[in-house]
Amino acid sequence: MEAERLLQQDNRTDLYVSQAAFWKWRSISQLTAIGACYADLDYHNVARWRAKAPRDVAGAVLGYLEEAMIPHPSYILSTGRGLVCVWLSELLPRTALPRWNAVQKRLGLILEPFGADKRALDAARVFRLAGSENSSADRDRCKVGMVWCHGAPDTPTRHDFGTLADEVLPVTHAELISLRAERAKRKAEGKDKTRPVLTLSGATYWESVLSDLQRLRAHRCPEGSLPEGQRDSWLFIAGVAISWISPAEVLGREIMSLAREAAGWRDSETKSRMSAIIKRARQAADGQKLDFGGREVDCRYRMKANTIVEWLSIDPAEQRAAGLRVLVDEDRKRERSVERTEKSRRERGVKDRTGQQTARLEMGGMALYLQATKGMRRDDLAAHFGVSAGQISKAMSEARQARQRQAKS
């Protein structure tokens, strides 16, 4: 492994590793998978814990988590000046990022008494490699190493992310589904007069938008960099999308990374062009709201899918060729709906229309034969084939018409 190779070299100072995988660059827009939740505890900034030994602080953290009814981490690392708590999980796709972010935010809030760093909650964060050395730490604490482990040190316990999220978040996924179902029922009965608030729906939408933007860029510009005339709109929309799925503390870094990759912009140019997006994201993080139509809404920019399609001039052919899922027109939405329905039917073993018609003709022909040779009535035939009386009548009628057409030809 690369980590083992780095630790075998003479200079093992300030080596870092990420808990996630990326396509090209280490940025949220390039995230392909993430396999852990974590919390970076700068306990040296908290007077109560500053003079304590790492193992003592780790023990206090474990006790605090037990009281909060939060699962123990897979392991805890001493980083020289603090601790990193890591909850390993299965590899998650980027589509899980909204819920993963919610878990991260909750863990940071719970461990705030231990100096949890709110700037170290994003998916692109790196931490010191176990076995390396921290040049900023005191000599007797500069070695980065494990101070507690749940399970064997070489195979720490790995959590199921769905279960972990249900135990960490105030409202579990199952409860959220139940609440939505109950709200839908009340709405159908005309009893729900409030506008539904769906946790994570905005983040999920914008993650899908960002994925579509990346697909569109790959389709239009296989070489990677956007041409002049397409950069401003694409990057503005991408920046808005990232503002909904990335912590405000690292938003500027994420947007600058994407702008360098997609447009070759200098950081100063990106800051100038994207300052409004970053400002609004910070205001939203501080709890500020905007008045919109007499109600308070999130400060961050928002755009409907059809508006983005118009801004970027995405024609129907591109929507299909690039495999876009959200940034599509109404015709493509209907096509995708039909495709999803047909796929669902195939997965459930339901035949397509041609297959259904063929099967019905076969059943109708057999029913006509049984009627002619054994005198079976309609209800008897329906019971024999395990269908309704109406279905057997339709099958026999179609089989009779097919025979008549054959006789004429």
UniProtKB/TrEMBL annotation:
<protein>
    <recommendedName>
        <fullName>RepB-like DNA primase domain-containing protein</fullName>
    </recommendedName>
</protein>
<feature type="compositionally biased region" description="Basic and acidic residues">
    <location>
        <begin position="332"/>
        <end position="354"/>
    </location>
</feature>
<feature type="region of interest" description="Disordered">
    <location>
        <begin position="332"/>
        <end position="356"/>
    </location>
</feature>
